[in-house]
From TrEMBL:
PROSITE patterns found in the cross-reference section: SAM_OMT_II (PS51683)
Organism: Elaphomyces granulatus
Start and end residues of each O-methyltransferase C-terminal domain: 250-397
InterPro entries, alphabetized: COMT-like, COMT_C, SAM-dependent_MTases_sf, WH-like_DNA-bd_sf, WH_DNA-bd_sf
Protein name per UniProt: O-methyltransferase C-terminal domain-containing protein
Length: 422
């Protein structure tokens, strides 16, 4: 049976309806039309009071993607998917390596000759690379052989995390992606955390996390990349910060295990003054934490390896996007090291993706979860997990961990809560 799709005309009507919701909002709030201009704010606002605008945007993206794919048809669709995407990534790697965004003036335009002089790359090669990206509104050419910023390229200058993200993709992720099919053949159906495409590519027996942690530049890029990934409307903690009933925990100490730069702890500490947090991670992560002065007394950092017994007795152990980095056997080890410190009634809260059935979510959300699943496979020989996978994993780690609830704000990380009974 063929996949059911609306007609082109019905898609166009839905696109028009949702575009109208967005346009009406912009007009009513005295905001300019969305554009690619490097100046001004091109983001639609987020937050509960703008839910109808974001819903319209998410629907619009899904319908527009369907319309584009139908219009491309099978032959051009396959070419577009493989050929264009392949070279988009190649071009992005070049602009990262030569730090090209910072060589283009944020206002006005920069002659290609100037970028050529600064990078040592010929004008011809630069234009090949930059014009590929201009197809995606990363830079534009206001006059022949002159380059100017768009909102997307300017973001790479203004937000260091965006550039870290690009670097992480270009340096740590793209080469293993090219090796994925080979790795699947070489390693077979392994569950070892050091038998991923990443290991084949970098010829290392260290798992991806160990390797990245022991390379300071990679570790810095990874930290920035995680922060960037959490911005925007998907793969963010915002939903569970708002919706999960953290207030019911009362006065509690929360250990944020593998907490990175503490982004989840800081977001929660900001909203819930009864909660105190200890962020645990590897030494390198602690170096990059920026503490808002008003939260210094409620959020602290401690070096702790989560493959060793947990030293802190607390009410709650929080693991944000930690276990998805690990195959089941290692994830179980991490949990068992927590259980050793847990008292009756203590909780483990996982902030993770819950993988759904194909087609059961809007395209925008599903696309990012599918990419995360591929990312886990490629880099860590791991995976995103379904609710059934999560429950089974925790039971396998310790049968005294009882599943309590899952809170799943659409498109955001879910909170999965387990309580420990002695
Ligand atoms: C995907 S990141 C998530 C970070 C953080 N929870 C967040 O969401 O921003 C996984 C984290 O696990 C940390 N990690 C990896 N191996 C670890 C270990 N053996 N002990 C402690 N932390 C570790 C990494 O340094 C990284 O910060």
């Amino acid at each position: 049976m063929a996949e059911k799709v609306p007609s082109l005309k019905d898609l166009a009507i839905s696109i028009s309806e949702n575009a109208t919701i967005i346009e009406d909002f912009l007009v009513a709030n005295d905001r300019p039309h969305l554009s690619f201009a490097a100046t001004g704010d091109q983001m639609l606002p987020m937050g509960p009071e703008f839910e109808h605008v974001q819903d319209a945007r998410i629907t619009l993206i899904g319908k527009a993607k369907l319309l584009l794919d139908l219009a491309l048809g099978p032959i051009d669709g396959v070419k577009n998917l493989s050929f264009s995407n392949l070279h988009d990534l190649g071009a992005l790697s070049v602009i990262y390596r030569y730090n090209i965004p910072s060589l283009v003036a944020l206002e006005g335009e920069t002659p290609i000759g100037e970028i050529s002089k600064a990078t040592g790359l010929s004008e011809r090669r630069l234009l090949t690379v930059l014009r590929q990206l201009m197809l995606h509104h990363v830079f534009y050419e206001p006059r022949e052989n002159c380059v100017a910023h768009t909102a997307r390229s300017a973001l790479l200058v203004r937000d260091p995390n965006a550039m870290d993200w690009l670097g992480h993709i270009a340096v740590e992720c793209l080469p293993p992606t090219a090796k994925l099919s080979e790795a699947l053949e070489v390693f077979g159906s392994t569950d070892k955390d050091n038998e991923a495409a990443f290991n084949l590519t970098f010829n290392t027996k260290e798992n991806c996390i160990q390797y990245i942690s022991s390379h300071p530049l990679s570790a810095k890029r990874f930290g920035g990349a995680l922060a960037f990934l959490g911005d925007g409307d998907a793969v963010s903690y915002e939903g569970i910060v708002q919706i999960y009933p953290w207030g019911q925990l009362g006065v509690s100490k929360i250990v944020d295990v593998g907490g990175g730069r503490g982004r989840l702890s800081f977001a929660l500490a900001e909203k819930y003054s009864d909660l105190t947090f200890v962020v645990q991670d590897q030494p390198e992560m602690g170096k990059h934490i920026e503490y808002p002065p008003h939260l210094m007394d409620r959020v602290s950092f401690e070096v702790h390896d989560f493959f060793t017994p947990q030293p802190i007795v607390a009410e709650v152990y929080l693991l944000g996007a930690v276990l998805h980095d690990w195959p089941d056997n290692k994830a179980i080890e991490i949990i068992q090291n927590l259980v050793a410190a847990m008292k009756d009634g203590a909780r483990i809260i996982l902030a993770e993706n819950v993988k759904m059935q194909s087609g059961s979510q809007p395209y925008f959300f599903e696309a990012i979860i599918r990419a995360m699943d591929m990312q886990m496979l490629t880099m860590f020989n791991s995976q995103e997990r379904t609710l059934a996978d999560w429950k089974a994993l925790m039971q396998k780690a310790d049968h005294r961990l009882e599943f309590c609830r899952v809170v799943s704000p659409p498109g955001h990380f879910s909170a999965l809560e387990f309580v420990f009974h002695t």
